[in-house]
Here is the input.
Amino acid sequence: MNIYSEDKNLIIDEIKDFDIEDVLECGQCFHFNKIDEKEYVLSAYGRVLHVKQEGNTRITLFNTSMEDYENIWKSYFDLDTDYAIIKSHILSVDERLLQAVEAKQGIRILRQEFFETLISFIISQNKQIPHIKQIVHTLSERYGNRVVLDNNFTGYTFPTVERLYEVSEEELRECKVGFRAPYIRNAVEKVYSGEITADILLGMTADEAREKLMTIKGVGEKVANCVLLFGLGFTDAFPVDVWMKRIMEYMYFNQDTKKEVIESFAYEKFGKYAGYAQQYLFHYGRENGLGK
Here is the structure.
């Protein structure tokens, strides 16, 4: 991988195992807009980024310094992780995943900010991705900061916990969050008070952190596992929603199976790479209707 500055932009060349479309549109994040083919404006960690991929190996981060890359985007895009090792391990465990891994070879698990991930996946309950994205955008537009990039693209940062703490349940409902309004309020209160923070959760085992997250009103095992995987870096977490349940039943069980059994099976089978296996299976399985 070769990284260098060109004008005001940062170029990542000769990158492997990375496809910006697979990364952003595999259901792990919701704070982005597609501008053109493999070209997006996204928001993360209080920043707005214009990013474009050309071919399979060249990424341009527009108006980005090497310092921002080192401090934010390298970690966010998980660029220090060797996905060839991960894929090799997954396929050594089950070669039947070869088609899924090859079809979605460019997926990486983003290292997202904990609070935004928590609120986003609370919103995600019983919602389609376009609706989730719209609600995240509305919250950001109303309570985040507006950022205009050099090329006149506009984005909004996700609101801080301090800002959302000032927002009433009724105001949240005006953002179309529906029955999730009290869940969001409870999450905000627990994070604002310091009862639940990224640092506290990262000092726990995955099981302990999951139980702690589930003390938030409306947070069940699936949402907690999504937060563990996408917002805290617990790569052994294996979120199971309706789609994932169908896919795993199709692949391994051939009968109706409890989510808890599926999660336990996935952890035992894939170990610390269970979260990566979930992403390949989920994205590939949904697109191809496995178990539908």
User: Anything to note?
Assistant: Residues 168 and 179 are 14 Å apart (CA to CA). The two ends are 39 Å apart (CA to CA). The first strand starts at residue 2 and ends at 6.
